[in-house]
Amino acid sequence: MAQWTTQDIPNQQGRLVVVTGTGGLGYEDAVALTRAGADVIIAGRNPAKGVEAVGKIRAENPRASVRFEVLDLANLASVAAFGQRMQVEHPRLDLLINNAAVMAPPQRQVTADGFELQFGTNYLGHFALTAHLLPLLRRGHNPRVVNVASIAANNGVIRFDDVQAEHSYSPMAVYGQSKLANLLFSFELQRRSDAAGWTLLSIAAHPGISRTELIPNGAGSNSRSGLLRRFLGPLLFQPAAQGALPTLYAATAPEAKGGGYYGPNSLGETRGFPKAANIPAPALDVNVAARLWTVSEELTGVTYPEVTVRTEMHS
Fold first, then answer.
1. Which pLDDT belongs to residue 218?
2. Confidence of residue 232 (pLDDT cuts 50, 70, 90)
């Protein structure tokens, strides 16, 4: 996959895609996929940003098939309502990119349902969303789910004794937990798809270190990480379009493997072109993955079809 770029995306004509997140990586995903002919739904909580994203895409590509739908991942009722609208309006879904995220707010915040904001938005919201859309995905053409993780997952730990960070809140530790959870979910979803014969590919990707609004929107523009982003960003952070490449590879490349994980190929996976990423050891623990799945169903109130998964380690 040497220097794979958007020029290598196969024709996506006729494929229906949902991308969560209106800016940054999600926007770049939508740009590239509409250029390749896909019908793209950008799903996010801010209608103004959604309309702006759609307008920019159409200004560059008047033939783009793209629209915005309201989806607040920090509100399970909004997630369920989005899923219900999709079920009514579409016979199938071919690609779901679970991309939207909140990063490192300095003070602990909670979602509408009382979950810690990062775990609730980055992981639980997407866990519930995927469950609501699974019937459509199972009717999709070569369906894929792409879960966006982070190199922060390398230091992540699932704190089952304090998964909502009620007793101890460290912004980056909780962010790392949410992104490790995305990885565990991605691999477990593939195991369940294989066991049940869903023909669904579940693939994870991470963008390295990219210039998006994730840090300013989370930690704040005047935080230490926000100032670093502002003044050293052009040197240390790759453009968002470059950071989106591993996700787009996972979403479209015929060579991308179910249960795979892709990231940038240079400078410790912080920048570059897509390659198979190094998987942090905790993400391979099938017992942790199974426990997290059960806890997630209990917390969100969503249920996936019952599947018996073999217990050998993911490879």
1. 46
2. low
Cross-strand partners of 289: none
Task: Convert the pLDDT of each residue in 54-107 to its tens digit.
Answer: 999 999 999 999 999 999 999 999 999 999 999 999 999 999 999 999 999 999
Is 249 considered catalytic here?
no
Neighbours of 110 (CB within 10 A): 15
SS3 43: strand
Q: What is the CATH number of the domain that holds 124?
A: 3.40.50.720
What is the average pLDDT across 173-182?
A: 98
User: Into how many domains does the chain fold?
Assistant: 1
Amino acid at 39: D
Note the helical H segments in 36-101: 47-60, 76-89
Determine, yes or no, domain membership for 311.
Answer: no
- Give the list of residues 6+ apart from residue 65 with CB closer than 8 angstroms, or none: 34, 37, 38, 39, 40
Which residue is it, tokens 């560059």? 60
Provide the residue range defining the domain that includes 72. 12-300
CA nearest neighbour of 151 among 5, 267, 31: 267
Choice among 27, 123, 175, 249 that is catalytic: 175
Return the closest-CA partner of residue 226 out of 213, 239, 236: 213
Tokens 């391979």 map to which residue? Answer: 284
> Residue 233: which H helix or E strand, with range?
helix 224-236
pTM assigned to the model: 0.92
Q: Is the separation of the CB atoms in 150 and 278 below 8 Å? A: no
Buried b (16+ CB within 10 A) or exposed e, 19-54: bbbbbbbbbbbbbbbbbbbbbbbbbbbeeebbeebb
Q: Which two tokens stand for residue 52?
A: 């702006």
Reduced 3-state DSSP string for 106-167: CCCCECCCCCEHHHHHHHHHHHHHHHHHHHHHHCCCCCEEEEECCHHHHHCCCCCCCCCCCC
Q: 174 by DSSP, 3-state: which?
A: helix
Domain assignment present for 2:
no
CA dist 109 and 244 (Å) reads: 28
